[in-house]
Amino acid sequence: MSNALSKPFDTKGLLKFTVPSVIMMVFISIYFMMGSILAGQYINEYALSAISVVFPFISLALAVSIMYSTGANAIISANLGAKDIQKAKENFTTITILAGITGICFMIIALCFTE
Prior knowledge:
Layout: H1 11-42, H2 45-81, H3 85-112
Helix pairs in contact: 1-2, 2-3
């Protein structure tokens, strides 16, 4: 049985790992662009302004969630690969609680900026 990560890492391997993330980011960008276009064309300029103001915060929340999910995947996979199921469960619980606390912090910050 061979380990995929023990093989030499080349450009093909790099593309294999990065292309799905790039495609995901492209679709998310298209989603936000279409929302902006539709809001600007069919609602009014205030809706477009609101989207433009909120977009950086949504991008920040998305970046943090991707960071947590990628890191959790790596840590828990390493525990499961080492046959340490209890440690994997503990790490999952810790990361889930940390992500929940981060979400609550984002919510409190968002509520501070509302009227």
